[in-house]
Amino acid sequence: MAYNFKEIEKKWQNKWYSEGTFFAKDDYTMKKWYGLIEFPYPSGQGLHVGHPRSYTALDVIARKKRMDGYNVLFPIGFDAFGLPAENYAIKNHIHPKITTEKNIEHFKSQLKSVGFSFDWSREINTTDPEYYKWTQWIFIQLFKKGLAYKATMPINFCTGCKVGLANEEVVNGVCERCGSPVVQKEKSQWMLKITEYAQRLIDDLDDLDYLDKIKAQQKNWIGRSEGAEVKFKLDGLQDELIVYTTRPDTLFGATYMVIAPEHPLINKYSDKITNLADVEDYKQKASLKSDFERSELNKEKTGVEIKGLMAINPVNNKKIPIWVSDYVLISYGTGSIMAVPAHDTRDFEFAKKFDIPMVQVVSPKNADSTIDISQEAFTDVEDGILINSDFLNGLTVKEAKKKIIEYLQEKGIGESKVNYKLRDWVFSRQRYWGEPIPMVYCEKCGWVSIPEDELPLILPDIKDYEPGENGESPLAKQEEWINTTCPHCGGKAKRETDTMPQWAGSSWYYLRYMDPHNTNELASKEALNYWNQVDWYNGGMEHTTLHLLYSRFWHKFLYDIGVVPTKEPYHKRTSHGMILGSNGEKMSKSKGNVINPDEIIDEFGADTFRIYEMFMGPFDQTASWSMESIRGCGKFLDRVWNLQDMLKDGDSFSPKFEKMMHKAIKKVSSDIEEMKFNTAISTFMSMVNEFYREKEINKAEFKVLLQLLNPFAPHITEELYSKLSDTTIADTPWPTFDESKTIDDEIEIPIQINGKLKATISIALNSPESTVKDIVHQNSVIQKQLEGKNIVKEIYIPNKIYNIVVK
RNA sequence: GCGGAUGUGGCGGAACUGGCAGACGCGCUGGUCUUAGGAACCAGUGCCAACGGCGUGGGGGUUCGAGUCCCUUCAUCCGCACCA
After folding, report:
1. Taking 60 as the threshold, does the pLDDT of residue A65 lie above it?
2. Nucleotide nearest to A802 (CA to C1')
3. What would you report as the CA-atom Rg of chain A, rounded to the nearest whole angstrom?
4. Global ipTM
5. Strand, coil or helix: what is A424?
6. Distances (CA, A) of A487 to A14, A43, A137, A445, A484
């Protein structure tokens, strides 16, 4: 008989939400645990089945932690600024504030229907002025410390809509909406100096409990490399071209230089360049390409030789040509490189295409591995010996790097240099629906931050969401808002009209949860000291580079100015896999494979939905939705429900189930901590199967089963438990196990002959080897197998396996 | 091109430091009960020329023993800023 989940789930949810069952306590003497999920963007489509995967996982852990006696903070909020609301407003002339409010209400009711144990009293919303007041406050602190600055950076500009576009909105070089070509347009923008924290962002990973793959991705993104800057004199000029290279050892093999199309050298010496038209033409073409496009063009190298200018290789004084090509990026290193085609794949391809000579300067140490430099670049660093390199000849690559840097430093033509791939954070958006940047520009004083007591700087209500001229923010049209006075000199000044990116609000939200209603500070010292650090943060892999890095950067900054007591925001970081449609493809409206959580809950109930999301596969891997499998989870809960019919009295485990119970407590406890939710659930299923086999279960066993299952399926378990006890499961301590009762005293071990399984025998745990040997040799199957064969060796791994090697 | 991952029955997946491959679930087959079943319960279910043999993407290797370790190769997914 199926249980009435609709009635039961509603009943318990009403109780939880009206009584504040899961509110974190303000008792700062208790041991605490802070679990965090990435707060959702409240999109118009409502909750995606992917959200509850992460939320249920941490809900399971949070519920267990409460039973373990922790004061648990498990908060929720909404990251509500962003593009879709704004684009919707442009199309339908509805204020983003209204749609955002509506979407949040929808999300809230959906989240509540899944029965998450969030602390709803601490709900935050990044678009709330009381919240973004502090986002703006942090920006001002960054500005005061010189970490926010203005720089000219290109934006994607749609030539049709005359709007700045996000990378996402540029598809194949054209505007996603109108199909017009997108060009790069220079614009003065606010930048945040995250690069100043690059080394700390790498070093401090060591003390964190992040998944290794997450640490690897962060490190790779920051991309520290050690190399050298080398100065190349320009032939006949007093000027020089500085390059960054990680392979200074190959300096003798540098046969040409390449500069980025945006490199200032071109303008500076335009009068010397004899093919200026060609160069300018190339530059123009490159500017039409988005970053994305430029990176796509990996098949075919393009470039133009800059005629009239030559560089001089400082170690051998040879004149080498200078090329311009977009495979060199102005944003990395010095925007120019020395090209060593014999030992770099990209340089090789380029040289090959334009028929530029190559000089091999490294040869394989291992004489067997012959290398043909005319076929491919030799890039192996480990196995290389320098040749054709004067005083470096005979050295290994490693030795040569050291020696050449010493030489360069001595001669004043270069120095060792650490470089990072990481670039400063472009913080301006030419958009309406974001936090206003609290800055004004005064002709006399330059950029000045607004006084902190004037925060929040409220985003003005507007009617026209269309962007301003030339890709300006819609705010640029708000004359009365823009014109203000300078906080410094009192003279005329203009407000910044760009807004902050969506990353801003999400860079510090975990701090606000600690003390969400504080009007004096972003959070009180007491709250910050007590909640300290997020103990466990789960989110998607797609946020492990940008969001995670940005918020670590802000946190470190806040630590530096004495606002927070910890160097790092998140102690532990895990990630969940995506949920795909049943066809194995990403869920999307156009593919028609979207699963609506409301419909699933309506048909199967929240508990079944939760169990299924946790059972569908390993938590950290992608999984495809399956309607058939979710039915099986519903069936499992029906079987749990029907266990009541077999209920017997008993205040302690009966002997036949005692071992199973202790093992289950152990297994489920560790599985939850390790996020192996799918195997925890399979343990429950096996237990239930066992009770059915014996057609009985006593009260003690049933209670423990319900307690263990409660974090996964909180409604049905509370309902069943309420029939056995006056307390709720949420108020009971997590069950404990006795290690000695998880060990079997009789075990089965396999017997192999030459590594092939032939039989299994049953022995007492820890039997002496001689006893086991006797039992093995008495086994009839084994005797038969051994007939006429010579035993070479017998291997016994205690309590594991017995293997006989024969000839 | 770079970075991160993943390949195990018809399907989703399990297997602690190398030690009985396929737990658990879906599906399928048979049975019980039933007016009926897309319900419930019970049993079976990796493959094959089945007393035996073969099996964890392919090919090598290490080992008494490999899904697990090493080399090599193929395929798929995700992210990206050609990172010198």
Report:
1. yes
2. B19
3. 33
4. 0.92
5. coil
6. 51, 38, 16, 9, 9
